[in-house]
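Write out the 3D structure for:
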Amino acid sequence: MKTIFFDVDTQLDFLYPAGALAVPGAEHIVGSLNQLTSFAAQHEIQIISTADAHSEDDPEFQTWKPHCVAGTNGQQKTAGTLLSRPFILTSTPARMEFTFNQAKQIIIEKQMLDCFTNPNLRPLLYHLAADRYVVYGVVSELCVRSAAFGLLETGARVELVADAIKSLDAARERELLQQFRSQGGHLTTVSAVTA
């Protein structure tokens, strides 16, 4: 069974209190995020990471305060979730090359909440043909939700790591988890994934 870890928006602006759009309490899952990344690296499991990469006047800033502006410190991934020499896929349409398979981590840049707005993501998933996705990151009811439900559409098994996600609204997170399970998704934990 081919497994891919799917790491959603584990960036400084979201994960730490000093971040431009900090998710309350997200710093408490950083250890879990690092553990998942380390496990993937040790077991040669490919990681797909999503990352906001906004321009300074991004239209999204009409809804959310400025965050993850490309090239800023806050836009960077936390050190423990970043492998050496990641392959970065911008939102500019690209040809799927065999060399993508060589990358231990592929970073999908995005300018909107939904990672599937990057036109390269669906072709990449088709090219990689995973049987199982393990999803974690922030924010549960927003970007994680988009990733998890989009991955369910591939027909692969999708597992959401319940103790490696963080929400802005606990009630909306509970609703997400219930809907995710009802549509065929599976809940798991860091300890179960890394056992």
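The mean pLDDT is 95.
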